[in-house]
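Take a specimen:
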Amino acid sequence: MPKRLLLVAVVLAAAGCGGGHHAAAPPPELLPAAVPPFPYTSMLKAVRGTPVSAIWMRSTRRKAPVYVAVLTGRFTALGSHGPSGAKAPTGTVATFVYDARTGMANEFSLTRHRGDAARPGAVHDFLPYLRQAAAKGVPAGVETFWLQRVSAGSRLGCETHFRNLSPTVFLSRLDAAAGGAFEVTSVQFLRACQLVPLVFIRTRDPHRAVAALPALEKQLDRIGGVWDYEGFFLEASDESGKPFALFWNHVRAEVAGGEWASAPDLYPFPHG
């Protein structure tokens, strides 16, 4: 069975990490046990309208395992092809079907009635993720891409072993590095083949926080120049909760990484 990106039951904030709450992230009790790497921003681009509900389920549709995502609301299809001058299709139920093994979309429909989901499994809510994607824009898109690449890497096999820090050691180093430069608002440990840290921080002084991030990355993920995790993601936000910088990597199937900043002088690492 192909490995999927799963959420470990470790969602840490507040105690021992500078306190606070990452306002843009869904609260821990809404996180499903298994999170398919849905392209949330692409879903929002497929239709115009605000979803009032969003659920997903696993199905054996067409004898192949798929994930079925169903959004309800008042929608207009974007990018649809029809006769010249014809109005874009509208509906109240947008359904997306993704191959469970590859994560690729293979079906989309916009109707006025919810159809048969083809013997669905347990139903999970993911509306908080769509709201997060809508609120965060570019950072949400980067995060979704990173999740997809980490998940894809795990599906190719787990032969390489990474020296994960224990969550306790990781959090203690993160807390010590924060000092007065930033506060840690949320830490999640995702599980692909091994643990994958997802860190959110907030600060009153973006430039000071950015200056501290290169050293922090080495303390948490590249001790002695060797990768400690198969993937790592950190996002920094200002006092209002608006992201201003992030960096990421994934190193199991392929070694790749990147960074984003809202202004040229807020990149954490040298940027050409």
Observations:
- The two ends are 42 Å apart (CA to CA).
- The first helix runs from residue 40 to 46.
- Helices lie at 40-46, 127-136, 138-155, 167-178, 206-221.
- The first strand starts at residue 6 and ends at 12.
